[in-house]
Structure formats: C-alpha cells, structure tokens
Amino acid sequence: MSQNGNGNGTRATRRSSEEVRNLLVDAASELFGENGFSGVTTRQIAERAGVSEAILWRQFRTKAALFNVAVTEPIVQFLSDFVQNFRAYAEAIDGTDPLPPPEHGARLFFGGLYDVFREEKSLIMTLLAARAFDPEILEAHGDGSGPLAEIYNAVSDFSGAVLRQYGITIDMSLIVRLTIGMVLAAAVLDESVFPDGPSKTRDEVVDQVVRLVFHGVIHQAD
Fold first, then answer.
1. pLDDT band for position 5 (50/70/90)?
2. How far, in Å, CA of 100 to CA of 119, rounded?
3. Where do the structural domains in the chain lie, given as residue ranges?
4. Is the overall model pTM greater than 0.70, yes or no?
C-alpha cells in the first residue's frame, strides 16, 4: 500500500514559493526572448515552467509585471554591476601620479560595456522590441526607465570626475547617453549596423568608439 497520495510509494516534494517564482521567471525570459512580449501568453509561460496558470497570476498578477522581473530588472542589474566595477577603477586612479593615459580608461569602459551588451543581447533585443510595440503596457507596470536614468547619471558623474583629473571639463550627460547608444547599436544591432558583411571585431569596434568619443570630447572647447 502506498504511504502517500501519489500512488507510487514516493513522497511528493512541495516546491517552495521561491522555486516556483524562479521557474516562472526563467520560462518567461526564454519565451519572451523567442517570441517577444505580445507573442507569448501566460498559459505558455506556466506550461513551460511546469506550474498552473493560476499560480502564475498569484505570483505576478500581470504579464507585464512578469516581463519586468524576467527582462527589465536583469538588464538594470547587470548595467548597475558594470557601473560599480568601473567606478572602482575611477576611484583607484584618483590622485595617482602619473595618471594613466586617458584613452586607457575609455577603452576599459567601452570594451566592458560592449562585452556586457553582447552577452545579454537576447534580453536587450526583447526589451527594445517590447518598448517599440507595447509601450503603453510596459509604462503602466514599470519599464526600468527610472533605474536606467540613475545609472546614466552615475556614469556621467564619475566620468566627468575622471576627465577633470586630466584638465577636461565638460557636461557629460548627453555624451554618455549617445556613446552608450552607439556601443549598444554595434553590440546588439550589429546585423543592422553592418548589413554589408561580417561584423567588425570587438577590438575594432571598441578602438573606433574610443577614437570618436574621446578625441571628440577633448576638442569640445575648439
């Protein structure tokens, strides 16, 4: 005779709420990456996660809320982690004598950013598509714009502080956003940026971004 309710002599393991949540987030991330926000139903997400749709609704209440957790929050987090790591470099050179060549820091920053964008290309593409085609839904449930703005402002602040050490004073706010957009386009939208052949190598892209941005910055006063 079975000693439990499943009839096979083994005790069924009840999954914790955290485990179920993680299963749903992982399934949602995969499906949103494959089909976009509008092309995925909550039933499909629940089925891939191996849970009921009712459990999904209890955990997240809306598909947009689940999208925010599965796609937007990870993007904000890895950008935040990257910025913190680069801030450590900026603080390390504070007051050093002689200062390393300014291009060195620029190359580290743009190269690291390019690597992060390439690694998370699928998530970023998913977010860009959702913002393009489902902006009302995402805006109503939080699309990460606030945290992203904070990250850009932080980059502007410490980049400006680093440049001041080299005697370069400039408003970095717009420059930071434009350069991050340029790196993102080369790393994530590479098939559109380079439609006429194989994409340029990572080092070629980073080198040219450094040349364009850094030398443009130092000659702003001209």
1. very low
2. 28
3. 1-61, 71-218
4. yes
